[in-house]
Amino acid sequence: MSGAALHPPSGESRFGFWRRTYAMLVKEFIQLRRDRVSFAMIVMIPVMQLMLFGYAINTTPHHLPAAVLLQEDSDLGRSILKAMENTAYFRFTREVSSVAEFDDLLLSGKVLFGVEIPRGFERAVRRGDRPALLVAADATDPVAASSALSSLGMIVQTALAHDLYTGDPGSPPFEIRAHARYNPAASSRLNIVPGLVGTILTMTMLIFTALSVTREIERGTMESLLSMPIKPVEVMLGKIIPYVLVGFLQATIIIGIGVLLFGVPVMGSLLLLALLSTLFIATNLSIGYTFSTLAQNQLQAMQLSMMFFLPSILLSGFMFPFLGMPQWAQLLGECLPLTHYLRIVRAIMLKGSTLPNLQHDTIALCGLMLFAMTVAVFRFRRTLD
Amino acid sequence: MTGAGPAEIAIDVKGLSKSFGGREVVHDLSMQVRRGSIYGFLGPNGSGKTTTIRMLCGLLTPDDGEGTCLGFDIRREADKIKRRVGYMTQRFSLYQDLSVRENLEFVARLYGMPNPPQAARDMAQRLGLSGRERQLAGELSGGWKQRLALGACTLPNPQLLLLDEPTAGVDPKARRDFWNEIHALAGEGLTVLVSTHYMDEAERCHEIAYIAYGHLLAHGTVSEVIAQSKLTTYTVSGDDLRGLAADLAGKPGVDMVAPFGTSLHVSGRDRDALDAAIAPWRDKPGLQWQPAAPSLEDVFIDLMNRSRDNFQ
Questions:
Q1: Contacts of B78 in chain A (CB under 8 A)
Q2: How many beta-carbon contacts under 8 Å exist across A and B?
Q3: Could you report the predicted ipTM of this complex, rounded to two decimals?
Q4: pTM, whole model, 2 decimals?
Q5: What's the rounded Cα separation, in Å, for the pair A230 and A212?
Q6: CB-side exposure of A100: number of CA atoms within 13 Å?
Q7: How far apart are CA A149 and CA A141, in angstroms?
């Protein structure tokens, strides 16, 4: 200590500013190097996300699932279906025999298009009656539907080329009546507002709980908590339940604004929407809580949440048509709660779907929630070992 | 301690060991604590006190060893131990953003007490915190935080208190009040295990154990521990003690030279060797030599020096 007087404090010198900045910089680098998980994420996040989204995202989706209601079996009918498939926009996955089944498939979102070839169609064409062929599209996502619908004009010509139909080239022998269901004006707002409900809820709910356990560890309160007779499940439920109410309030605000300001309808049951939204909120909270049991500090918990949030936006069908993604990306998307909730919230608000139409997505949400909770309970460390 | 039946023993552990990252923090530690006693747990920083306490209340799993706490197995019955033990952590670990009342109510609810608000009010009153019930715990001064933490861990009426350096960084008045409270609690039949490195606090314990580098080096009452050390100590006062200390240090027979205010403590484990070593200075004018009983601090520093030789 006595030697200190011999050297003037270096901070006083002309280079004090840079020296102190340098000291801070070195310290930050050392700390960054110690936090291996963060360091790994610095490299992993951009690589993974670029590979993932670069290959998965496609704004002009092809091979969209379609159903056909074939009320007569004719050569002309089959040529038309063939011509539709040849556009590469449609892929006929189901053949149904009743209008009810046809509507049901569209309501549950299993197909995006339905084609109805009416009874006596071929004969009417031959007679020159110019019958109509119905193509119903699920237009809740206008992006997915529009390019496919705009291709329909060419189909008439292609189909007839095969059938050697000779008639007045100026007036086509039949008309295609495209029916954009649920969103006839193809307003993207109708699609985006319900989507925003899910996206906003994902972001806020995830972050509420993602910090909850790491915060207790960093503030030192975890030691006290662990020395008291409380079980991991009790800690988890105690931390999740309050935010279910917060999330419910938030959902009410977003949906309220969507209906009042943006004129988005709620065609289906408000009660069902509330129930399934609560389920979705609880699922996200569970996943956030799981992240907080996996992360070692709050920064890592935030990074994990971001890594989950980005695919949720890009692969769930919020920004890009879900069915336009390659198979593997769709599989990934199925693991995200937002994918299922988007189907639910769009279906209830725009299509008026009921629970039986949505049972697949409801079960998926329950499954994801239980899975996250199970991981969290097992990951929660009951000791300081 | 031998002959005490299990009903009179609160803590009974044998051969506890714990390593972190290949470094053994606690080695083959055995101890017994009688019910209703205040047991002082002494040792330098990093000696394994906190780790031992955490193993006792189920927060850490021992790598080796076994034992019981309040009659429950520390490995298999941590849940039962947690219900009956109050653990006060070294670092303040209540919720800083909750008020005094809210913290106490939280603890009362967690332990399933019948009327949490009432229990919290009563405890705040007992702690002398009645006027500060609505204050946030994070805004309390160090001494009050300590009292609140003690209140929180005694609230569910535990049978055993584990206090990890409860008085570190607390002023002398608050420390004295704290110890009076601990004696009052022990008087009510509570067993208290308290770790500290203040020697004066050791003297307030019924029994003490000294731990260094993970090894339990001595235990018993204060006078037993001093007697066990077989240390001979002289107090020297006079001129140029700094020079004398430098001369004596390292001489065969002199195990320890330590300044105490205006005097010097010179100690050795072998009385004859010590006498021989100090003989040249014994009759030097200006120095007064007096045989003295070794203090607990002398004993502990000697134990620590010896254990450093043995274990490092």
A1: 382
A2: 46
A3: 0.84
A4: 0.83
A5: 16
A6: 0
A7: 12
